[in-house]
Amino acid sequence: MQKRILSLFLCLIMASTVLTGCVSDKQIDEWAQQLHDKLYPEDYEKKIVLQEISEATRNQAKGIVDEIITSGMSEFEKALTIHDWLTFNLDYDHNYTNYHAEEALKTGKCVCQGYAECFELMAELAGLEASIVGGNAVNSTGKRESHAWNQVKIDGEWYNVDVTWDDPSNGADKKVDDHSGNSYKYFLVSKTQLEENHTATDYFEGEKACNTTYDRNVIYQYAASSGLYGDTVYVKSVEEANATIEKTMKSGKTELSVWLLNLADGDESISDYVASFIKKLNYCISPSDSFEVSQDGLIRFEISFYSESEWAEFPIVKNVSEFKELLDDMGKDGVKSYIVRYEVEEGEPEIAASMYNCKVKYSKYNDGKSWLITVTVQK
User: Fold this and answer.
1) CA-closest candidate to residue 232, choices 243, 218, 220, 249
2) Which residue stretches of 69-99 are H helix?
3) Measuring CA to CA, which residue among 141, 159, 157 is closest to residue 149?
4) Is the dihedral angle over the CA atoms 307, 309, 315, 319 positive or is it negative?
5) CA dihedral 85, 86, 91, 96 (to 10 degrees)
6) How far apart are CA 354 and CA 340, in angstroms?
7) Are 373 and 360 in contact (CB under 8 A)?
8) How many angstroms separate the CA atoms of 229 and 328, rounded?
9) DSSP letters spanning 147-183
């Protein structure tokens, strides 16, 4: 509210100057935020006060670490496993009542300080060196606020970790029940990268030189294979995708979750990029109706695939008349749900579903002409 008032105030001032019409709304909002920060520094200069870890909290954390960390794990794998446990099992406390590790582990909710305390505690119990950093950060709405995060040592190198900002429950859409959108944007990053929106003011165990960012391909590959995301693979090329699909098909599964790095160029939409990628695959395969792009640039979508013999078994239609005849025949046979191949030379198939008591769902397949339609007859 304070920022909104300041924006209106700036607009009124500029309306009487030669700058009127020459400055964008975005620039006005940025100036308003800068003015807000100067007038109300207490909003982001709150000091982080750490709480001594009780024996009960330490024992609870040790129980978790003993369960999720195995003896053969590398330091990197330990850090990522702890990061993922926290993003999966804690939700951001938008009521701002739980600040510490004890409250976080008891209730499953906390603010950034609770995430940071939990990460440090669990990392140390797993044999890692870790510390907490206090400061402030500019969030997705452009507001600067008090914040806390971590630094952790992996194979002799120090990195920054912000578990809070990698948890989707921290965002405005508050994905409390859906952790599929967990991010690694702020996992094992350099000082330079973090300082794009974080400013450190308190190093509780001394500042560590975080000079590099960990290889993202290594992070995504291990995270996808961790089992937390189900049957998920991380692929960087069509060749990798084909090999993975072939392996998955041999295992008897028909669906797969895919993480694909967003390499779309500036003139290409992500939808076109995904469609182009799918068309290059060797199998009859379709992406889900929707996909999401995480803040660290991962495109995540579901695919279904069929063998050539399964594909050949689907009934084929080429126009709306044939589609209607098939619906009529299926209805006479009492079939409630079935899949149809609708083949067109170009464009989308004509589906006059409104004249029938059924629902249809269709997706374009990789030959560019075949559409797979799922028909469900309504009661």
Assistant:
1) 220
2) 75-89
3) 159
4) positive
5) 160
6) 17
7) yes
8) 41
9) EEEEEEEETTEEEEE-HHHHSGGGSTT--TT--TT--
- H/E stretch holding 362: strand 358-364
Per-residue pLDDT of the chain (379 residues; tens, 9 = 90+): 444 554 554 455 555 554 545 565 545 444 444 444 454 444 545 667 778 899 999 999 999 999 999 999 999 999 999 999 999 999 999 899 999 999 999 999 999 999 999 999 999 999 999 999 999 999 877 888 899 999 999 999 999 999 999 998 876 666 656 666 789 999 999 999 999 999 999 999 899 999 999 999 999 999 999 988 888 999 998 899 889 888 887 787 778 889 998 887 777 788 888 878 877 877 766 666 578 888 888 988 888 777 677 778 888 989 888 888 887 787 777 667 778 888 888 777 777 655 555 566 656 565 667 777 777 766 5
Locus of tokens 């105030």: 9
* CA-based nearest residue to 82, from 56, 118, 106: 118
pTM: 0.76
Task: For residue 49, give the nearest of 136, 134, 119, 115 by alpha carbon.
Answer: 134
What tokens appear for 295 in the block?
């803040």
SS3 content of the chain, % helix, strand, coil (to 5): 40, 25, 40
